[in-house]
Write a structure and sequence with these properties.
Blueprint: H1 16-42, H2 54-76, H3 80-93, H4 100-121, H5 130-159, H6 172-187, E1 191-198, E2 204-212, E3 215-222, E4 231-236, H7 239-245, H8 273-282, H9 286-297, H10 305-322, H11 326-358
Helix pairs in contact: 1-2, 1-3, 1-5, 2-5, 3-4, 3-5, 4-5, 8-9, 9-11, 10-11
Length: about 400
């Protein structure tokens, strides 16, 4: 057979793991681009978060958009459609679970963004032109869809290897025996939880060390360890052995579904607590200290530190509740109570600040400042003799 008549070589289809790695490389590169852009944008703001160099900020975003397009072309463009096909097949093979509808919606969104990216990149404008920069800016939201949510498609591709099933499940009698041992160990405080994840069927799996007769054994629990009804589904000599046998973890959820690591709102200007403390230390009148306190409790867009602290505690309470575990609910209740206490304290600080501001007073003059630089001795004088070291007699001249 002559070379001209030989059949053309057929391209090898990438494996599921190769498709998953392509998405992972793109997401890693996007994380680097995001960190570099954050650092560049920080340099365009003053110490309180206000943008003072808008031209430099616009240039940083334009550089970000172009770098993201190049990352997509390099890592994901040849594999995006194939990865979505594999992910959809894997999704159809998973057991019914509450999260599957959400994953289907994510894959649909990834497909829509992939089509839009392909449509725009097919007819890019002249290199370096304003039209090209506008096209890159239009691509950025679709690229961040992959950067934010591509891990779900990647994980589904990995699930095709059968990682959603336990390799060596325990027999009923053995599972009951180990569950009774673990429950008894939990009652006496000898069950140390170490790691938790969700399996493909939506059930939580937790690894724990069970201490029995001065020996530590790794056991895998299925269910909420803080509520009745959980069971031991495996026991192992070490965690590596457990990882090879147990169902692999699926991506964990998010607290708020509409958040994006790459499309955050610009930070609101804020005065740090250190600045407010400095204002009080350097103040002369009661109004100076009052304004500093009011800055910590003011609400609105440029909220003060105490308002932000309450938001942090309340958001953490929402997070603890969203864990949907018994301990999570208990911690959520504690944090919610702390949030109410901070709110009460905020009102108290505001009233005290207003009362302080109404005090028509200044610091008395006898609070004289101390010079930070002492007067230098005359040139013809000898330096003072240093004090003797402890434990040594002073030398006499």
């Amino acid at each position: 057979m002559t070379p001209a008549s030989s059949p053309p070589p057929r391209h090898r289809r990438p494996t599921a793991s190769e498709l998953s790695n392509a998405a992972g490389n793109f997401m890693l590169r996007m994380s680097v681009i995001g960190c570099e852009t954050d650092a560049a944008l920080d340099r365009t703001r003053d110490r309180h978060g206000r943008t003072v160099h808008p031209g430099a900020a616009e240039a940083a975003r334009a550089h970000r958009d172009k770098a993201a397009v190049e990352a997509y072309r390099t890592h994901l463009a040849p594999h995006a459609e194939a990865l979505l096909d594999v992910a959809l097949l894997a999704l159809d093979e998973l057991p019914p679970a509450q999260h599957l509808a959400g994953w289907q919606a994510v894959l649909d969104g990834l497909h829509t963004s992939t089509v839009e990216i392909h449509r725009i990149t097919e007819r890019l404008a002249h290199s370096g032109s304003e039209d090209e920069r506008a096209q890159y800016a239009a691509l950025w939201p679709h690229l961040t869809v992959w950067a934010d949510h591509g891990y779900i498609a990647s994980n589904l591709a990995d699930q095709r290897d059968g990682g959603q099933h336990q390799k060596s499940p325990l027999a009923d009698a053995e599972r009951q025996k180990w569950t009774e041992m673990a429950v008894a160990a939990q009652r006496r405080g000898a069950l140390e939880l170490t790691e938790s994840w969700f399996a493909a069927d939506g059930q939580p799996i937790t690894l724990a060390y069970l201490v029995e007769d001065d020996e530590s054994i790794v056991v895998a629990l299925r269910g909420d360890p803080g509520a009745p009804g959980w069971q031991v589904i495996g026991h192992y000599e070490h965690e590596y052995e457990a990882g090879k046998d147990l169902p692999s973890p699926v991506p964990s959820g998010v607290l708020r579904r509409n958040c994006s690591r790459f499309n955050r709102l610009p930070p609101a200007p804020e005065m740090s607590l250190q600045d407010l403390i400095r204002d009080v230390v350097e103040g002369r009148s009661a109004g100076d200290a009052s304004n500093a306190l009011l800055g910590a409790v003011q609400g609105g867009y440029a909220a003060g530190a105490m308002i932000r602290l309450r938001e942090l505690v309340e958001t953490s309470a929402q997070f603890a509740s969203a864990l949907e575990t018994v301990q999570g609910q208990q911690i959520s209740a504690r944090l919610s109570a702390l949030g109410r206490q901070i709110e009460f304290l905020t009102h108290e600080v505001q009233e005290a600040a207003e009362d302080l501001g109404a005090t028509v007073a200044v610091l008395p003059p006898h609070r004289t400042p101390v010079l930070r630089i002492r007067p230098r001795p005359a040139v013809d004088t000898s330096p003072p003799v240093p004090p003797p070291l402890a434990g040594r007699p002073a030398r006499h001249r």
